[in-house]
Amino acid sequence: MKDLRRYLVLKYIQYLVLSSSNAISTFLGLLGSLYTMIILQSAKVSSKSTVVLISSLAKADILVSVSIVSEVVVWTFGVSVSPTAFTSALLRNLFTANTHISCLLLSCVAFEAYLITFFPTESRHLRTVKNARLTSRIIWILVIAECALFQTDDLLKASSTSLPIHSSCILLLRFSSVAAALLRSLSYLLGILLRIVNVYIYYKIFFSMSNR
What we know:
The structure is a single chain. By secondary structure, the chain is an all-alpha fold. The chain has one domain. Helices cover 80% and strands 0% of the residues. It has helices at residues 2-17, 23-39, 49-77, 84-118, 129-158, 169-211. The longest helix is centred in the C-terminal third of the chain and has 43 residues, at 169-211. The two termini are 22 Å apart. Pfam families: 7tm_1. Keywords: G-protein coupled receptor, Glycoprotein, Membrane, Receptor, Transducer, Transmembrane, Transmembrane helix. It is a multi-pass membrane protein.
């Protein structure tokens, strides 16, 4: 469990402390996720709701791995990727999806820690493996849907110059552009809110443990 706590600290720094990921934090995060996935295969790790959330958090880095491997293959072997706009947008959106999934899962872990600290008995029926799996599944579905919308918007923008003036695709382009812009604004505001909430939660937990 100490290793899992260190992993959570690493992920909190990577996604909720740093304003943006850099090469070092991304590399350390990938190593931490790989090590965590190995640890979770051990029979010594009991199946708890927190462990389920951490497992889903580690799996989210698969999206980053796919992006990095794709870029390395293209750069190393000079592979001609077609269409380029689609691929570059996909890699960027996979990074975004990883960030959003990780932030939401980390916030779920923080909320669970809050419940364990202040409402251990009353919240026991909520802190179940079934609910943790359901929560993780919902987060993945919502973020993948967000990624699909961003990808559609980027693709339509890239191909807008070739669309006929009176094409019905123009209406689709405007709709996806507005929806993507609103979702990006909402994601930005939600990211700020999650940072504030997480700081508050661990502030309360820290002083609660200190008083004890």
